[in-house]
Specification:
Blueprint lengths: L1 H5 L1 H11 L9 H12 L5 E3 L5 H5 L4 E3 L2 E8 L5 E3 H10 L19 E5 L11 H13 L3 E4 L21 E4 L12 E4 L3 H12 L2
Parallel strand pairs: 1-2, 6-7, 7-8
Antiparallel strand pairs: 3-4, 3-5
Helix pairs in contact: 3-7
Length: about 200
């Protein structure tokens, strides 16, 4: 957050080059999760990803815990801009990151920030209500999938602790996690897409 407010132009340049990939397409894993949602097998996705590919694949019940690069919001009036609009603003305006829909004495208060959660930031789900929504979903789940996460980043890493007793935890991740050897836990250290394709083929039998 400090760097964003001190160097908004450079921050956006980095974000556009490294975090924003509008031409990226969902992979097999995204598509199968969306398919399972339509079939009633998946009730919700809680993701650390900021790329919007779950929604692009067709998933509707997605909690973007670390936010998204698809939009940016004025920190004063909360006007939202798409990432494409921010790219256009950057090409036309010197202070493109300053909202022109509202006015404050301090220009920084009108900075338009990408809707990703930064260090020192909170975000939509970093609230008591947000946590209760997420934990409620986990506590009610009859199976919990962890896909492509080392489960090292807090508070996300603590979410599996809230599954009900006896509920299976399936971890598909190349690399170990601290949950690998717990009861009712099953680990596949292979590609997410390939593994979900195999599970989906099995479910079709």
């Amino acid at each position: 957050m400090d760097y964003f407010y001190q160097h908004p132009d450079q921050f956006f340049q980095f974000a556009f080059e490294h975090l924003y990939h509008p031409d990226a397409e969902p992979n097999d894993g995204h598509r199968i999760l969306a398919k399972w949602e339509k079939e009633g097998r998946v009730t919700s996705i809680i993701t650390q990803n900021i790329d919007g590919l779950h929604q692009k694949a067709g998933s509707e019940h997605v909690i973007e815990f670390h936010g998204t690069m698809k939009t940016a919001t004025c920190q004063n009036c909360e006007t939202k801009n798409s990432a494409d609009e921010m790219v256009l603003r950057k090409s036309k305006m010197p202070d493109f990151y300053v909202c022109d829909k509202c006015n404050t004495r301090n220009k920084q208060e009108r900075y338009i920030k990408p809707d990703v959660v930064l260090f020192g930031d909170t975000g939509e789900w970093f609230t008591e209500e947000g946590f209760q929504t997420i934990l409620g979903q986990i506590e009610q789940a009859d199976c919990l999938l962890v896909l492509g996460s080392s489960l090292k980043v807090t508070p996300f890493s603590h979410f599996p602790e809230y599954r009900a007793a006896g509920v299976p935890l399936l971890i598909i991740n190349i690399g170990e996690t601290r949950y690998d050897f717990l009861d009712d836990t099953y680990v596949v250290q292979e590609s997410i897409g390939e593994t979900l394709v195999q599970i989906d083929n099995y479910l079709k039998r």
